[in-house]
Amino acid sequence: MGNSKRVLVLRCGALGDLVYSTSVIDALRLEFGENVIIDYVTTPSSSKLFENDARVNKIFHLKHKKVPIIFSSQKKAVIKHSINNPYDILINFEMGKQFKSLVKHIVAKKKVGWFSEDIKVPSKLNRGKQQKYFFSSTVSKQNLEKSSPSISTSKFIDIKDKFKLKNNYIVVSPSNSHVIKKVINYRAWENSSWGELIDKLSKKNQIVILGNKNEEKFFNLLKPYPKNVVDLVGKTNILELCTVVKYAKATICTDSAIGHISAAVNTPVVVLMGPNSTITDSPYATPFNKVYPLSLNLICSPCYKTKRMKACKDNICMKNITPEMVINKLKINNLLLKD
């Protein structure tokens, strides 16, 4: 352990962004061996992704990102630790200017990523692959290509009885990060369509509904659920949620963290996409998983975070996706369960 490389990774975005960044873990272990020491700086809520991950050594929480170092005990803790135990490499995924001073004051022999290198990332590339550009100078091209997002889970036996799960089930996750925000949710599918899909699929398949506790108001609009539905909204921690997803026959969701988690644990995932790019925003596809973006490919799509989206008054790119389209996507890929 004394000669092991010590690496600090800075990634404080949303849960899906953190999942994307985990490709750095495989890349570092391939490059420097399994004894490489990997520490992470991330948000308290997202950090729970690593609770059962033996590959991550230490987690630093950073809740208030914009607070200057002088007023931030959490930023000071990271810096102090790096002074007492200098890192070999600092990898920074964060592009916000509020991270510049933190990157500057962390002690590391080599600093890569934003603020330390001139990084030019192709825009028409999956965001998981885009993030590899932030640490490409630290590992070989071969190990970079081999790496992909991956997360740890527990065993199926740990959750099966607790949540009354069958050996086969389909995960449905209707929400996304804009559900509780006071803005038009352009990524949302119609509640009536979710209801119809759940009703039809549950006739022959156990359906598991996943979502966050603070989204219960949204999920109440979809109730009552049919008999063959297990409602786990707000009832799992992140480790349990990831485990439920891992052992599912398939996942159905919109552009959300659940889709990225599904891809990272190699569960086939059907992602309903309207304003988002099926290239840039889809979960990271590998030879070991199956990612099925479902898009109408309208002439006005993709438009996410553009003036065209802000001017849109009717997100037909999502509304006009039908439950039959989703079911057909499952059928042709042999993802439906049978009696």
List keywords for this structure.
339 residues; alpha/beta; Rossmann fold; five-stranded parallel sheet
Structure, explained:
This protein is α/β, with parallel strands linked by helices. The chain folds into 2 domains: 6-146, 3-Layer(aba) Sandwich (Rossmann fold); 157-332, Rossmann fold. It has 14 helices and 11 strands. The protein has helices at residues 15-21, 23-32, 73-84, 100-105, 127-132, 141-146, 157-160, 191-201, 216-220, 238-246, 257-264, 307-311, 316-319, 323-332, and strands at 6-10, 37-42, 58-61, 87-92, 108-113, 170-173, 207-209, 229-231, 250-254, 269-272, 291-294. α1 runs parallel beside α11. The longest helix has 12 residues, at 73-84. The chain is globular and about 60 Å long. The chain starts with 5 loop residues before the first strand and ends in a 7-residue tail after the last helix.
